Amino acid sequence: MWYYKFMDTSFVVFKKGKYTNFGLNEKELVQMKTCRRKWLARWLAACIAVVLGMGMCAGLPVSAATSAELTISQNGIDFIKAREGFSAKCYYDGAQSSIGYGTKCGTKAHASGLHSITKAAAEVAMRQEIVSSYIPNVRRQTSGLQMNQNQFDALVSFTYNTGGGTSMIKNSPLVKYLRGEMSQAAAASAFESYVVTNSATGKVDSGLKNRRRLEAKLFFSGVNPNPPKWAKVTLDHYAWMAGETLTFNLSSEGGVAYTVGIDTENADGGRTRIDTHDTRDTSYSRSFNNPGKYSCYITTYNEYGLADSERIYFEVYDKKP
User: pTM of the entire structure?
Assistant: First the structure.
């Protein structure tokens, strides 16, 4: 049984598909039925929008994922094509017979140039080789590590160029950066000289050094090279009861992590640190059991520096002030 208030004075009951009129004339009853149909239509439309919205949101890309969740992007394909160059005929590159954008072309005997390929077919062949041989190696050697699309593409480019071996990717400066073992600046610098020896000549190849530089540039293209500009911490209000949970909201420009510092404000004007908390979240919650005056500030930081917030002050009471 559904009850509807109509025109602020009368009610109508809907029961088993029938309307019962309480003080409504025929015109008002028709208006009420029309309102109900509109309400139901809007309700159904809202439900459909929510369902469709959830479906669309589920397909949205995320900024970071594990390598098992990523595959080569078209930008990554284009990056590798530019590094490899195109050859319509088979050629011997010092390690294998290649064709198109560096895909394998059988044995050395095929280096005579008798085979040919179009650019479109060469891209298809390169993509197939990347998916079947090189992406699995990247995933094996970066298992469980979080990275963004550009970082994954750069590692695939490196693996397409070198093969990746059994530990070459894992031991690379770029993956050491992902594990937190090297800074961005150190990893980018070291990677420029990583696996740059020409297998045919045994000498350092300037072309390979340039490729590593470009791969590092792609890898770090989504990383902010500047220190944070500012940090801010806020509370919903600044007077609390003992035992209540306070949530500190943390924000910054360019920061990737925060250190939260909470102090008691002493009667002599000094401060005593009671809590230091490190987090990558944008909020921090805790309760205070002891009444008193407190303050909080945060420091945010990234690879290139840090920034401090202004200090905020709040008070905890044992009863409502």
Answer: 0.52
